[in-house]
Write a structure and sequence with these properties.
Elements: H1 7-23, H2 49-63, E1 67-77, E2 80-90, E3 99-108, E4 113-123
Antiparallel strand pairs: 1-2, 2-3, 3-4
Length: 131
């Protein structure tokens, strides 16, 4: 005949399991392990600045019919990365009359390009404020 655990024993086992699970999120130093980000990735899965830059340059090569001139800005946010590129849209002589476009790309924490848009278009000789 097998014995079934009493209600008290079951409750104690459940409490013990909950305590050990709660404690498993703490490091020996007492620091808490960071949880997942908004998109479910952990900090160790998040791409870094250089990876975001290269992903956007590769995406621009595929999506735009223009040469990437430069990366103007890269900034991190909760959703991943925001990368601003300057693209040569029309070459002219003299080159001060080249038409440049600024494109803003959004990249998720795992490296997926979620969108892009043309934010500005101007001649190379026009002074632009950095944003």
């Amino acid at each position: 005949m097998t014995e079934t655990p009493s209600e008290n024993e079951s409750a104690e086992t459940e409490r013990s399991w909950e305590e050990s699970t709660a404690n498993s999120n703490e490091l020996d130093s007492g620091q808490t392990v960071s949880g997942p980000t908004e998109d479910g990735s952990t900090e160790s899965e998040r791409i870094d600045l250089n990876e975001a830059r290269q992903i956007v340059i590769d995406a621009a090569d595929q999506l735009l019919d223009h040469q990437v001139e430069d990366v103007i800005k890269i900034e991190s946010n909760d959703a991943g990365w925001r990368v601003v590129l300057e693209v040569l849209e029309r070459e002219a002589v003299p080159d001060t009359q080249d038409i440049l476009g600024r494109y803003v790309f959004s990249v998720g924490t795992k490296g997926n390009v979620s969108g892009y848009e043309l934010s500005d278009r101007y001649r190379r000789d026009e002074l632009k404020e950095e944003f």
